[in-house]
Each structure stands twice: as C-alpha cells, then as structure tokens.
Amino acid sequence: NAGVTQTPKFQVLKTGQSMTLQCAQDMNHEYMSWYRQDPGMGLRLIHYSVGAGITDQGEVPNGYNVSRSTTEDFPLRLLSAAPSQTSVYFCASSYGHNSGNTIYFGEGSWLTVV
Amino acid sequence: AQTVTQSQPEMSVQEAETVTLSCTYDTSENNYYLFWYKQPPSRQMILVIRQEAYKQQNATENRFSVNFQKAAKSFSLKISDSQLGDTAMYFCAFMTAYSGAGSYQLTFGKGTKLSVIP
Predict the structure, then answer these.
(1) If you measure CA to CA, which chain B residue comes closest to A97?
(2) Which residues of chain B have pLDDT under 70?
(3) CA–CA separation, B50 and A89 (whole Å)
(4) Nearest C-alpha in B relative to A59
(5) What per-residue confidence (pLDDT) applies to A103?
(6) Which residues of A touch B47 (CB under 8 A)?
C-alpha cells in the first residue's frame, strides 16, 4: 500500500502566487487533515475533514482552503502565498470509527515562499 | 484547550544506554490518548508508542516504554539500549477520547531533539 502520498515534495513560490498541495490515501480512511511544522514547533492543525463533503478549520486556518470531494483526496490550497507560509506541510489520515486510532502521516511537503 | 509541554529541547545519550524524555500535558478531560512520535532527519512522522488514559498499565513497544502518571499529567518515554538510528526529534502528542471531530486531532509538544552518540 502507498499509504498517505503528498505531492509535490518541494516547492518554491513567489509572494502572491497560489498553489495546491495534493494529498491522497489508499486506506479508505474517513478522517484526513493538514498540519504545518515550523522551526522549533510541533505540528499544528490547519484544516481537517471527517468525510467526503465535510471540512472544518483547525488551529491555524488563515490563508488556506480545502475541499473533500472524494474519500481518497484532500488537497490544500494556498490562495495568495505569503512568506509566513514557508513551512513543512504534512497530510495525515486515520479511520473515523473510534477516537484514538493511529494517525498516519505523509512524508511532508517543503514549501518556501520568497 | 489542551496543551503539551516538552521541557527538554535537546538531549544526548551514549549508544546502548537508557534515556528518558519528559512530557507533561494539561487537560480537563478524563479520557484521552497520548502518543510519542519520532521524526528522523527525513522528517517523516513515525508513531513510536500509544497510551490510552483509561488503562493503568504502561505501554511498551520493544525498547520503548512509557511512564504514564495520570494524576500528575505526565507521560515520559524511556528508550533502552539506545541505537544510532534512534537519533531524531521526538514529539509528545495528545488526542481527546470524546466523540466528534476533535477526537481525530493531535495536539503536539515542541519536541525534544535526541542525539545518540557512538
């Protein structure tokens, strides 16, 4: 199984540009989420989804948009990139039946905004 | 809101020795889950160990074990027989056990950078 797959792995953007980070999972997980990791910090939740058609905001949602049209995919859109969005982004997924289920992470996407 | 605190930004240990990483958390909930994740230089997040708050028995996974003190809200990770491959950032994380969307979200500490010295 591929697990959680993120693309691209590396990206450099200019301020004001938009882009989409792709995330796909092949484990039929209901729950998917996006986190960002900044230097000296743990991961912080940006947006999450508990199923197709359902999304909600996490701790740091400003400047990001998400949608969940299928169970497998959960793209993260940067509407107008800012240097403050330079970070490592992680997509994650888990089964939605019971809380405490293991959350599986993708390998991360390194984004630099100049 | 829950908070997770890791008070040791960096630690080092000699190969084959034992090291303990500290984690404290703050919550008003009675039922929850605690995790330790390992992040090697590749940046991949790898689950090391998981503890359910309603279980008094400390979780163990091979060389990794935890000391879970619910009353003290403490959740330390002990690594025995340290190996060079254990060199990584280690993150402590909290997840509520109550139903609803919040039950799938992790709250992380800032991490402890562990170096295993040959």
Answers:
(1) B99
(2) 99-104
(3) 23
(4) B107
(5) 87
(6) 102-103
